[in-house]
Amino acid sequence: MNEQAELPDRIDVLVVGGGQAGLGMGYRLRGAGVSFVIVDDRARTGDVWRARWRSLVLFTPRRFAALPGLPLPSGADYYPTREQLADYLERYAAEYALPVAHDTRVTAITREGDEFVAETTRGTVGARAVVIATGPFQYARVPRVGAKLDVSVAQLHSSGYDCPDDLPHGRIAVVGGGNSAAQLAVELADSDPARDVTMIAPQQPWFIPERILGLTVYWPLKLLGILSSPATSRISEYIHSRGDGILGTEAKRAIKAGRLRLLTSRVVDAHERSLVLADGTRHEADAVLWATGFRTHYPFVQVEGALTEHGGPLHEGGVSPVDGLYWLGLPWQRRLDSSILHGIAADSLDLLAPLERHLGRVPAAASDSMEP
Fold first, then answer.
1. What is the pLDDT of residue 1?
2. Which comes out higher in pLDDT, residue 7 or 369?
3. Residue 332 CB contacts under 8 Å (≥ 6 apart), including other chains
4. How far, in Å, are 169, 247, 265, 317, 346 from residue 283 at the CA level?
5. Average pLDDT over every residue of 11-40
């Protein structure tokens, strides 16, 4: 268990978010000798992962699920479980003595002169710079049409799902076309042969094999430079246009074997106990699991020029047009791998130099103790 950090009245850098992105930024700041504190609204480092569904495993191998400076232990599964990753994050914070103030939620960040003022549930902090590392997965996105379903139809978002017992038996619709939707649809289909599970994806899923020539698909992507390719590169733009890829073919095999049904159309409406699809068909269900992702929402950021008109981060590679404000942990922030733990090492390093310049320091060359 990590020690609770004191919340200072004033600090050079305030890092908002104590998950992998916030810890990765803390590692960089610690190495540069910058004073900082990380605020985390959870009671314990890693709790953001402990709160996810019970059977969750990462779709990235442990070699590509590590933060800068410290690999996952060899005893962790090849594809780490939620508990293994949570414990790793806790160990990481302890290893580098990162100052994390737990049970501390930021309610507002404003600008006063050249500094920022953060109102938190434990008091006010003044900071010369702020790194927002909460990530984009804070507010569950549930389509409005769900409100039209009959009250007898059970509904749950994937962020609130723990295990198959959370949903009734019968006809279950899993709405979504990403990795979470595929994992949960398979789990529900395999939990009881009497369950009739249908995955409703907006388009034909893109199933990516876990291994190529006996190697995890991540190694060829890394060796060819694709994994770290700039977000603006042609390969990145192509992959981005394809939508979420589903790593592994377990769901594909379940569909082929008839254990899982797949419908490819968007849910556009609902009536009584049926979801209405864009192709005009209706799908009746006893329960709906919405694996529809999250919406971008940062209501606590109350700094003019920091957000787009839709409330998303306004930035270029994590650097805000607001001097002294930075973002970390966003999908496609700088590279293809910005959305996974592997990308935090490079993205945090890229932010360090402009942050140090803002503080009036001469950026020093930084490196990782962990081999790339």
1. 59
2. 7
3. 231, 236, 240, 338, 339
4. 16, 27, 11, 42, 45
5. 97
Residue pair 318/347 in contact (Cβ under 8 Å)? The answer is: yes
Distance between CA atoms of residues 137 and 130, nearest Å: 19
List Cα–Cα distances, 124 to 118, 161, 250, 346, in angstroms.
6, 34, 49, 31
In contact, 197 and 185? CB cutoff 8 Å: yes
Q: What residue spans of the chain are helical by DSSP H?
A: 20-32, 47-50, 82-95, 179-191, 218-223, 234-242, 250-257, 344-358
154-200 residue pLDDT tens: 999 999 999 999 999 999 999 999 999 999 999 999 998 889 999 99
What tens digit of pLDDT does each residue of 251-302 get? 999 999 999 999 999 999 999 999 999 999 999 999 999 999 988 889 999 9
What are phi and psi for residue 43, nearest 5 degrees? Answer: -80, -20
C-alpha distances out from residue 46 to 30, 41, 179, 191, Å: 20, 11, 21, 28
Q: Which domains does the chain have, with CATH numbers?
A: 10-136+296-358 (3.50.50.60), 141-209+248-293 (3.50.50.60)
- For the segment 215-237, what is each residue's pLDDT rounded down to a tens digit? 777 777 777 788 888 878 888 78
Q: How is residue 175 written in tokens?
A: 């709405």
Q: Are strands 123-132 and 115-120 parallel, antiparallel or unpaired?
A: antiparallel
Query: Rounded CA gap, 20 and 325, in Å?
Result: 19
**Cβ neighbours, 10 Å, residue 9:** 9
Q: Find, among 92, 85, 110, 83, the residue nearest to 38 by Cα.
A: 92
* Cα–Cα distance for residue pair 314/301, rounded to 1 Å: 11
Joined together, the tokens standing for residue 189 give: 């289909």
Euclidean distance between CA atoms 88 and 24, whole angstroms: 13
Residue 130 near residue 22, CB atoms below 8 Å: no
Hey, what amino acid is at 360?
G
The Cα 113–Cα 23 span in angstroms is: 28
Amino acid (one-letter) located at 116: F
pTM to 2 decimal places = 0.90
Kindly provide the residue ranges of all beta strands, DSSP E only, lying in 24-181, ordered along the sequence. 36-39, 100-101, 106-112, 115-120, 123-132, 139-140, 154-157, 171-175
pLDDT of residue 223: 75
